[in-house]
Write a structure and sequence with these properties.
This protein is of the alpha/beta class and 228 residues long. The chain has 8 helices and 8 strands. It has a domain of 158 residues: P-loop containing nucleotide triphosphate hydrolases (Rossmann fold), CATH 3.40.50. The strands form 2 sheets. Strands 2-3-1-4-8 form a 5-stranded parallel beta sheet, sandwiched between helices. Strands 6-5-7 form a 3-stranded antiparallel beta sheet, with no helix packed on it. Helix 1 packs across helix 8, helix 4 runs parallel beside helix 5 and helix 6 crosses helix 7. The longest helix has 24 residues. The N and C termini lie close together (11 Å).
Length: 228
């Protein structure tokens, strides 16, 4: 199924399944999955960028679990949004815009390019304990970014089941850093949801605790784009 000129924004604490759901929805809807965190991570960890003082500063924030400079992130995202809109491509954001500043920068642009009624906001809800467990037990594909959730079946996996590339554990995924990221989410991302409500953009509350396939089904049913 191919839907154009629509935007899905997925929110939730660390480990809620934002990336997992974005990848699943991407394959069903043929949207472009824009993972801000992954894009930022590629830039700040690129060896070619390590002499840039600004990027070194952003890497220090990123690796400590804190959010990068909102203006720097917003400028990066806006460039990509304009390119995708020009191609008439639907977008899925997993966790972005993360701060009120970013939202005030990006949401008006999305409304202008895609229309308010074509913006769907999904909030995945999970317990703090679930967040910590999922993040400290997951692996990511080094090539396609596919997140492998921990289970007895997957605990010894070393290669991605989709593309065969090596799996790795992110620097961010340790208990203490996760706790910091949860506090950052509560402090800086929650106000974004209030801003979206003031813009009269509906927020769909989804239970993120069940199996990923069940969460995907509920998202598609609630936003009424496509049923599995």
């Amino acid at each position: 199924m191919k839907l154009k000129k629509k935007v899905i924004i997925i929110y939730g604490p660390p480990g809620a399944g934002k990336g997992t759901q974005a990848l699943k929805l991407e394959s069903v809807l043929n949207f472009y999955h824009f993972d801000t965190g992954r894009e930022v991570e590629k830039i700040v960890h690129n060896p070619k960028n390590q002499k840039d003082p600004k990027i070194k500063e952003q890497r220090k924030l990123f690796d400590s679990g804190k959010l990068c400079d909102p203006k720097w992130v917003a400028d990066l995202v806006k460039k990509i949004i304009r390119k995708l809109a020009k191609k008439n491509k639907g977008i899925i954001f997993s966790g972005s815009p993360r701060t009120l500043f970013e939202a005030e920068e990006l949401i008006p642009l999305l409304i202008k390019l895609y229309g308010k009624r074509n913006i769907y906001v999904v909030k995945l809800n999970i317990a703090k304990e679930t967040s910590i467990f999922r993040n400290t037990h997951r692996k990511l594909c080094s090539k396609c970014g596919y997140p492998v959730i921990y289970s007895q079946e997957t605990k010894n996996w070393k290669f991605c089941p989709l593309c065969g590339a090596k799996l790795f554990v992110r620097v961010l995924d340790n208990p203490e850093t996760i706790k910091i990221r949860i506090k950052e989410y509560q402090k800086r991302t929650t106000p974004v949801l209030d801003y979206l409500k003031r813009q009269k953009i509906k927020i769909y509350e989804i239970n993120g605790e069940p199996l990923p396939s069940l969460v995907t089904k509920e998202i598609l049913e609630k936003i009424n784009l496509k049923k599995l």
